[in-house]
Amino acid sequence: MRIISAKILFPFILLSLWACATSGDFYRDPKMDFGSIQTVAVMPFANLSKDNIAGDRVRDVFINKLLATGAVYVVPIGEVAKGALKAEILNPATPSPDEIVKLAGLIKVNAVITGVLREYGEVRSATSSANAISISLQMVEGQTGRTVWTASSTKGGISIWNRLFGGGGRPMNEVTEKAVDDVINKLFK
């Protein structure tokens, strides 16, 4: 009887551990008054995935979800791009602290958010496949160039259920929204 119950509980234990492992970490500067941040700019995300436009897709989802919170105003991406040109930022996905301070002054924002899209799309293992996303974001204060918040999230991937029973996992848009919701929740904790 113990062997049977152990065989039944083992997949649930592994699934729970996997869920805990994919939640990611975050950092919030304890000295920062996040209530003072009213306006932010979201820079283009560095894209390390195979999909060339995945960074733009995830950035759009992030901006929409951040605006939906009503907590901050997000400067339109066209104004951010124009400001990055005026500030002579060579790589908008990875600006230096000095470049961020210059940009923040030009487009009148309190903070700048940058990000890295590490994984986006279908992952495979043996006969199973599923959609996955892995992102890391950081918020840099506009006046000092100091990083005041970082968060990462990995969602989707091949679950034990996919391996045992087949299936392709969740749709990419659903996985993306869950990852974005996760990092936004870490911002407002």
Summarize, please.
This protein is of the alpha/beta class and 189 residues long. It has 6 helices and 7 strands, in the order αβββαβααβββαα. It has one domain (24-187): Rossmann fold (3-Layer(aba) Sandwich).
Would you mind describing this structure in some detail?
The protein is α/β, with parallel strands linked by helices and 189 residues long. The chain has one domain: ABC-type transport auxiliary lipoprotein component (Rossmann fold). It is built from six helices and seven strands. The protein has helices spanning 2-21, 54-69, 77-86, 97-107, 160-165, 172-187, and strands at residues 26-28, 39-42, 46-47, 73-74, 111-125, 128-141, 147-156. Strands 1, 2, 3, 4, 5, 6 and 7 form a seven-stranded mixed beta sheet that branches. The protein is globular and about 50 Å long. Residues 9-24 have low confidence and may be disordered.
